[in-house]
Write a structure and sequence with these properties.
heterodimer; A: alpha/beta; 22 helices; 7% strand; B: 5-stranded parallel beta sheet; 5 helices; 5 strands; disordered C terminus
Chain lengths: 554, 139
């Protein structure tokens, strides 16, 4: 008993455990006017909706329109996802967001021998136009805003499937609103290097999407740079926006080399950011990211259209901040992170489900994630005032420090020849290893306290019973059978003809045409993702199958 | 007294799952604890994992899964190890593993399953208690 009272006495006197932000910026006891000295309101902050957009990209922010509630969804078959998407729409979701399974992300079909065990598990399979048809069954493509989360190599095919379906339905694709991830270095920096397609080929294919949409789909976001996945690998807030912006710079340069006018595509670039657990730092990071990108686009690239200067972003709350023990605590973490995203001026938001460190979301946990957004939007009052924390000595000081740090990192990247070059030479890999190791050590030594990890833990037997989502095994069997059946029943001559044309076009190096119209034709003839990307691989002198197991069908 | 070399651990990622932050961090932290660690990188097959384990003569195989393929892949690896009479290798798992799958994995022959909230100390302790070698012996 005495021990308990000693503990109580000690706990009563405890102070803050760590006097740094998550990213390691030392913080002072109190911030005062001198901490914001030198800031010129009009030049460095400005009103919401005005350059450099520190306070948000719209003058009225959420009073005009609340952020898009866009919960990520994907498992099992396209029919399963269609059902879950419709459920989320009924529950008040305002934008769709579908993620693909790993085989699709690697550009192989569900019936590929290496795909076994991964079909329909981490997302849904997109083998052919049939899958897109089933996914979008009963969903009006001209009125919804669709977000397609695709990997670097699969993005041109997935985009083509969406366009091909719109054309098949006889719709006006220029009215389509949505986003394709299309971040061509993503695979490479995620540890896969050139296993699937060389990075330079992926970049060219990505710019095809940018060019095609700039012409035919003016309301579509053609590039969504995935800062979130960068952050999940363990880097800090300043690194997140520095690396993401540096990738953006590389893609902009490539688009300009293609002969595109900066203002024809820059307004359709978006970013996917993390909202981590350090509340003020995340808000400051998002404000700094906006100012940083505005300056890059206006001052460096000379964009004239103010829409090109705006850093538009979606947020995914930080999956890596969630803890498997006492999983209900994650509801609290997600709520704080979502509020930071909103105070940071987010355009679209995905809240993690509390069971994310355990399994894919169940219907109940998915709904709760959406409810987290709805409580924020309609009850807390945070949507009523644009950038309410502006002018806070601490927030403005931290916004400056994060931007300065990001600029310094970007200068280092610039010296290496840009972000893609830095990734190719292994610099990025070293940076993430250093950062994630340092974090883990701080947790192990209790320099950082994480509830349910190194403090306030409970014995496993007392923990909450976990209800987990299980992808029905029959969904996976059905999907594999469907792909096999499609390959037998479609017009093979037509598929072969379209793949031959695509092969010739992709082979052309001197006067390379935009491949997207040919990929759209191929997918319209029901060629699969494996076949289309296999054809592009062969045209680039590689084997048909990235894993060297499957032989070309034609 | 067993004067065998330092404990040798193979950390492996099987299948298409590319989330390898945990695998890399654990590799480095086990090295810091005095073990010899080989990391396979991503996209391994059960065959390549077992082949590497055999060639490197490892004491422990640590499999990392964050994408749901833990049961089929682990099963294939354990079957291959048994075929090759390498069943003395300690198998541990880490990552996003639902609790109800843990008994199934243990039934297959997995010694322990660690999740994101398991500290490195608990992993080291488990390895020390369950392998014939001790990382501190040679130090």
């Amino acid at each position: 008993m005495e021990d308990k009272f000693e503990k109580l006495a000690k706990a009563y006197k405890e102070g803050a455990s760590r006097l740094k932000t998550w990213s390691g910026f030392e913080v002072k006891e109190v911030y005062k006017p001198e901490d914001v000295e030198g800031i010129d309101y009009n030049k460095d902050i400005g009103p919401p909706g005005k350059y450099p957009f520190t306070r948000g990209i719209h003058s009225d922010m959420f009073r005009g329109r609340i952020w898009t509630k866009r919960e990520v969804c994907g498992y099992g078959t396209p029919e399963d996802v269609n059902g879950r998407v419709k459920y989320l729409i009924e529950q008040g979701q305002t934008g769709l967001n579908v993620i693909f399974d790993l085989p699709t992300n690697f550009g192989i079909d569900s019936d590929h021998p290496f795909a076994e065990g991964d079909v329909g598990v981490l997302g849904m399979p997109y083998n052919s136009l049939v899958d897109m048809e089933k996914l979008m069954e009963g969903i009006p493509m001209e009125t919804v805003s669709m977000s397609l989360i695709a990997s670097s190599c699969s993005a041109p095919v997935v985009m083509s499937q969406y366009v091909a379906l719109g054309k098949k339905r006889g719709l006006d694709i220029s009215k389509f609103r949505g986003t394709i991830q299309n971040d061509p270095a993503h695979h490479y920096y995620s540890g896969y290097r050139d296993k699937f397609l060389p990075i330079d080929v992926m970049v060219e294919n990505a710019i095809d999407i940018v060019e095609y949409c700039a012409r035919y789909m003016p309301s579509w976001y053609t590039m969504n740079i995935n800062m979130y996945d960068l952050r999940e690998q363990g880097i800090n807030a300043a690194q997140e926006i520095a690396f993401g912006s540096a990738f953006g710079i590389d893609y902009v340069k490539k688009s300009l080399e293609r002969g595109l006018d900066i203002d024809s595509f820059a307004p359709r670039i978006a970013f996917y950011c993390s909202a981590h657990i350090d509340f003020f730092e995340e808000i400051a990071k998002l404000r700094a990211a906006r100012r940083l990108w505005a300056r890059i686009m206006k001052e460096r690239f000379g964009a004239k259209d103010p829409r090109s200067w705006k850093f538009k972003f979606g947020v995914h709350t930080a999956g890596c901040s969630l803890v498997p023990q006492q999983p209900l605590n994650n509801i609290i973490r997600v709520a704080y992170e979502a509020m930071a995203a909103v105070l940071g001026g987010v355009q679209s938001l995905h809240c993690c489900s509390y069971d994310e460190p355990i399994c894919l979301p169940t219907e109940q946990s998915h709904r709760l994630a959406l409810r987290t957004q709805q409580v924020l939007a309609y009850e807390t009052g945070v949507a009523s005032v644009a950038d309410p924390l502006a002018g806070s000595y601490y927030i403005e000081n931290l916004t400056n420090r994060i931007e300065e740090e990001a600029v310094s990192i970007m200068n280092e990247i610039e010296e290496m020849g840009g972000m893609i070059a830095a990734v190719k030479r292994g610099w990025y890999e070293k940076e993430i290893e250093k950062a994630s190791l340092e974090y883990q050590k701080e947790v192990e030594t209790k320099e950082r306290l994480v509830v349910g990890v190194n403090e306030f833990t409970i014995p496993p037997e007392e923990d909450t019973k976990e209800e987990v989502h299980v992808t029905p095994p029959e969904s996976i069997t059905k999907q594999i059978a469907n792909v096999k059946k499609l390959k037998e029943t479609r017009n093979k001559e037509r598929v072969k003809k379209q793949l031959d044309i695509l092969y010739r076009m992709a082979q052309e190096k001197e006067k390379r045409e935009n491949l997207l119209p040919f990929i759209i034709d191929a997918t319209s003839s029901y060629a699969t993702i494996g076949e289309i990307l296999g054809t592009i691989r062969m045209a680039n002198g590689l084997s048909y199958d990235p894993l060297d197991i499957v032989k070309p069908p034609f | 007294m067993n004067l065998k070399k330092k404990t040798k651990v193979l950390i492996a990622k099987v299948g298409l799952d590319g989330h390898d932050r945990g695998a890399r961090v654990i590799s480095q932290m086990l090295r810091d604890k005095g073990m010899e660690v080989v990391y396979t990188g991503t996209l391994q097959t059960p065959h390549t994992v077992v082949k590497t384990a055999e060639e490197e003569d490892v004491d422990v195989i640590g499999l990392s899964f964050l994408a749901g393929g833990h049961i089929p892949h682990t099963k294939s690896i354990i079957n291959l190890l048994n075929e090759k009479k390498l069943d003395n290798i300690l198998i541990i798992l880490g990552g996003v593993i639902p609790k109800q799958d843990i008994p199934i994995l243990k039934e297959l022959g997995v010694s322990e399953v660690f999740r994101a909230d398991s500290g490195v100390e608990s992993i080291v302790k488990h390895i020390q208690e369950n392998t014939r070698c001790n990382p501190t012996r040679n130090s």
